[in-house]
Each structure stands twice: as C-alpha cells, then as structure tokens.
C-alpha cells in the first residue's frame, strides 16, 4: 500500500505543476491581449505585501518598478499584497507613492496587484515566541498562495521572506531573485545573544528572561543555528539565481549565509533632496528620518538631545529635535505615543521635540531645507537611506558607528568633533557616534561651536558623495542590469525587420508582428542576448 500511495502523491504533484504551467501560459495570453501587446510578455512578480508602508524598502520598490516600466516594455509587473487600497483603488496608491516619495509611476496600467489573503501570517505579532520560525512558516503559506494566484516567469522577493524562493524555483521553474535589505539572522545577532548583555541592539529582540538564563540562552543559540542553516539554504544558488544587496555590511553577511557572491546595489537617493538654503540660514534643528520601529532606537535620540541641552547655557528655545517617520500599524502608533510620554517626562515641550508621523514628501522637503543636523541611531543599519537623504540635502549627519553608515556612507570619510573639516584631507562627509554623550558632543560642536563656513566643506563633500554614489540614476542602471540577469535568454525580433544577422540568420515572415526566437539557435552560448534585445539589420 505504501508504494501506490507514494506514486499517487508524485502523480498529484506532477498534475499540480502542469496545472501551474498551463495557468501561467493562459495568464500570459490574457494580459497580452488586454494590453494589446503583439508579443508574449514576461510576467514579473514581486513579493512585497507592505508596498504602501512608506519606508526605505518601499522607495527601492517603486523606484525599481518605475525604471522597469520605462525601459522594459515587454514586462508586466505583479505585486502580491493584502493592502485594501492596492486591491480596490490602485490610483490612490500611485498618488500616495507620489506624495511620499515624489515618484511619478509611468505606465501604471502594467502594474497589477495580486491579493494575498494569508498576509496576516507574516506579522511578527502572531508569534510572541520563536518569531523567526513562525514568520518563516507563515511565509511558506503566503508564498504558496502567491504561487497559485499568479505563477510568474520571474519572481522577486524584496522584503526578506527568503523561504518563498524555493516554492517558485522548484514548483514553477521561475527565475528567482531577491533584493536583501538585511539578513533575517546573522552572526552578529548570535554573538549578542551569547554575550547576554542588555543594550539598544538586543533589547528589542532578546527578552530579559532569556538574557538572565544561561539555559535559555543556549537554547536560543541552538535555535539560531538551525534557523541559519534553513535560511541559508532558502537563499542559496539552488533556489535564487542572483541575490542583490544594499550595502557592504549586508553583502558580507549574505555571502556568509547563502554561500554566493551577491550583487551590490545601493538604494536610491531621491533627486528631490536638493539644498535650497545655505548653511548660515539654517535653523538649529536636529531631524531624524526613519520608520517608528523598535530597532530605530528613538530613545537614544531623546537621551542625546537631553544631554546636549543640559551642557549648553543661554537660550535653549531655538533648538529642536524633530522625529520624522512612518507608522505601519497599531504597534508603531503605540510606540510613538510611548516616545511622546518619555519626552514629556524628560521635560521637553511639544515645541522642543516634534513628531511628524507619515508626513507628505513636501513636508519632509521643508525640514530637509531648514534643519542643520540629520540624526541616525540604529545599530547595524543595513544601509541608511535617511542618512543619504540628509547628506544630499546639505545637512550635517551624525549616524551610528556600525552597519552601512560605517562601511559605505560616512565611515570612509569620517569627521571628528572639534576638528575643522576644511583642514582634513580627504574632506569628511559626516560624524559617527555610539553613546548618547558622543551624539551630544557632535550636537554641541555643530550647533554651538562651529561656524557655517567651517562646516561648509563637509556639507559640500557629503552632498557630492550622496548625489554621485547613491543617486537614482546609478540605482536604476544597476537595477535594470540586475533584472536583466534574471530574464530568460530569449530574443525579440520585429517582423518589419525582414532579415537580421547575428552569428547566423533569422527570417521574420509576418509583418507588424513580433516573433520570439530562442537564443540557443546561435552557434555559441556567449552570443545569447537578453530578453527584449532587438537585433540590428545587417
């Protein structure tokens, strides 16, 4: 009885996979007809359930999608989400993207939102214990639903749910990729758990009862080892053709976990952040840009601002700390409320510490144009697009001495408080700190001691670094190159090009049509061209 059962199980899976392939072909023909495309389009699906959250990951998503819409006319883009606005009022979502990121989505008709009803299984609040494992299992369920609803040619995970990759790779044969903002688990996390210390880097994901117990600490380390193994396999080359990462810090950890060499692609700095006033006209304000998540460590910002005000004399009313960020759900709004209460307990008025929750892009632009310091406090930030935004706008940035700010953004050209930036070669682009006292020292130097002329070389160097190395143009070029590496090796030929030669000869017989020809017809594999390439008539 066992053998027939196994054979029946195998037969069932074969039928299921064949059904997916047939469904994909039907979907491809349906949308090609709907969009009046003369050829067979490529279906590219993106797993980004929270595509309207308004964070740095969403900026990457929509900048990348917009680039594909402009330069890849043969692509149809599908985004898996459970957001009600996406599913019922897409035009409102595109307007929200424009208001939040100043990104005008082109040819939005080629973007389709696919309902993902199992999205609640991805939320960490459902798993008070074994959160990583719970979310991984939840992502398998959500990934399976996504696979059935829209079986695509190319599958991209842009939110860190790597366990969805094997489903698309093995059951559908899709060409899978992932843009990793930060690894779900890392060796740094394991070291901090082993250290059993309480600090800003561990307090939000390592409960006090675990830190106090040696046995629970050992069990959690073992749990991390098992999860690292599973996570590493999910993102390895057998499931994911190419992994893109957003920073040197992330690349180091992902290479260790996945055993592959990731594609480094820095997130885009928006073109909208351009300096509008000189340093001498800016106000003594400190701004922080980042979602109100626990790891952003906003309490450290309040403590640093408190120390700064205590160490200066005279009128303190001009100085402000402005916390700018997005809230994804009820938990984030409650966190903002707790921060407000903490600020009041420290003696700050609502004018001294300002909270800007989910502000429009125009409001953020105003603060970037008027403030002096751009503040960042997250430990091991994978990159730090808010840091780059401030630099591009001409602010003096002070960031945490770890992760992306240390390795990619500021660390290579670091300034020291008390030292005239204009006297240093190469010119520094910002400051790094760890303890609240260090942050306060930088605040005091920049806002009280240094003159605008002394800070101008730093601000100029920071602006230039942000606009050249981390610009939208650089990102879009790299993003298109990355997606091209995932595309099937097909060649599009226009029928009005009656004859084209490329290491061989191809005939096109139907006028005003597109003919798809496999690149393998060419004599050598290295002559294969990416999907979408037009051959020049000889």
Automatic annotation (TrEMBL):
<protein>
    <recommendedName>
        <fullName>GDP-Man:Man(3)GlcNAc(2)-PP-Dol alpha-1,2-mannosyltransferase</fullName>
        <ecNumber>2.4.1.131</ecNumber>
    </recommendedName>
</protein>
<feature type="transmembrane region" description="Helical">
    <location>
        <begin position="125"/>
        <end position="148"/>
    </location>
</feature>
<keyword id="KW-0256">Endoplasmic reticulum</keyword>
<dbReference type="InterPro" id="IPR038013">
    <property type="entry name" value="ALG11"/>
</dbReference>
<keyword id="KW-0472">Membrane</keyword>
<dbReference type="GO" id="GO:0004377">
    <property type="term" value="F:GDP-Man:Man(3)GlcNAc(2)-PP-Dol alpha-1,2-mannosyltransferase activity"/>
</dbReference>
<dbReference type="GO" id="GO:0005789">
    <property type="term" value="C:endoplasmic reticulum membrane"/>
</dbReference>
<comment type="pathway">
    <text>Protein modification; protein glycosylation.</text>
</comment>
<keyword id="KW-1133">Transmembrane helix</keyword>
<dbReference type="InterPro" id="IPR001296">
    <property type="entry name" value="Glyco_trans_1"/>
</dbReference>
<dbReference type="Pfam" id="PF15924">
    <property type="entry name" value="ALG11_N"/>
</dbReference>
<comment type="function">
    <text>GDP-Man:Man(3)GlcNAc(2)-PP-Dol alpha-1,2-mannosyltransferase that operates in the biosynthetic pathway of dolichol-linked oligosaccharides, the glycan precursors employed in protein asparagine (N)-glycosylation. The assembly of dolichol-linked oligosaccharides begins on the cytosolic side of the endoplasmic reticulum membrane and finishes in its lumen. The sequential addition of sugars to dolichol pyrophosphate produces dolichol-linked oligosaccharides containing fourteen sugars, including two GlcNAcs, nine mannoses and three glucoses.</text>
</comment>
<comment type="similarity">
    <text>Belongs to the glycosyltransferase group 1 family. Glycosyltransferase 4 subfamily.</text>
</comment>
<keyword id="KW-0328">Glycosyltransferase</keyword>
<feature type="domain" description="ALG11 mannosyltransferase N-terminal">
    <location>
        <begin position="44"/>
        <end position="257"/>
    </location>
</feature>
<feature type="transmembrane region" description="Helical">
    <location>
        <begin position="160"/>
        <end position="182"/>
    </location>
</feature>
<feature type="transmembrane region" description="Helical">
    <location>
        <begin position="6"/>
        <end position="23"/>
    </location>
</feature>
<feature type="domain" description="Glycosyl transferase family 1">
    <location>
        <begin position="280"/>
        <end position="411"/>
    </location>
</feature>
<dbReference type="GO" id="GO:0006487">
    <property type="term" value="P:protein N-linked glycosylation"/>
</dbReference>
<keyword id="KW-0812">Transmembrane</keyword>
<dbReference type="InterPro" id="IPR031814">
    <property type="entry name" value="ALG11_N"/>
</dbReference>
<dbReference type="Pfam" id="PF00534">
    <property type="entry name" value="Glycos_transf_1"/>
</dbReference>
<keyword id="KW-0808">Transferase</keyword>
